[in-house]
């Protein structure tokens, strides 16, 4: 099992940094393209939420083992993420709904030091987007 943590800047560029870092850290344990796409999308959504709606410091942590990955995004705000009902034409507000739909499991807990929260999700190998076979590369 591997556990690694990255401190992120409190700005929008943290989303791309986290997405690439998590994929690099987990590629060996989630080798299929569909699982990697889900991993990238959900990491992006949680980090974007931390930067847009949370407060510093923002961290991303990964626990991985063959066929299984857990990603944890922490920030300094204690406010829990909320699933929203959004209009079809809205350009945002779907992050928590995507995590709920695509993650194997997810949740929220306080940071161990009490200085905010950690939102986490897990992905398993062979996890793809609904309605699309997990072994498609595309």
From TrEMBL:
Species annotation: Kineococcus rhizosphaerae
The protein, known as: Anti-sigma regulatory factor (Ser/Thr protein kinase)
InterPro entries in alphabetical order: Anti-sigma-factor_SerPK (IPR050267), HATPase_C_sf (IPR036890), HATPase_dom (IPR003594)
Entry's Gene Ontology molecular function annotations: protein serine/threonine kinase activity
Keyword Transcription regulation on entry: no
Keywords of this entry: Kinase, Serine/threonine-protein kinase, Transferase
Sequence ranges of Basic and acidic residues compositional bias: 77-87
Annotated segments matching region Disordered: 70-91
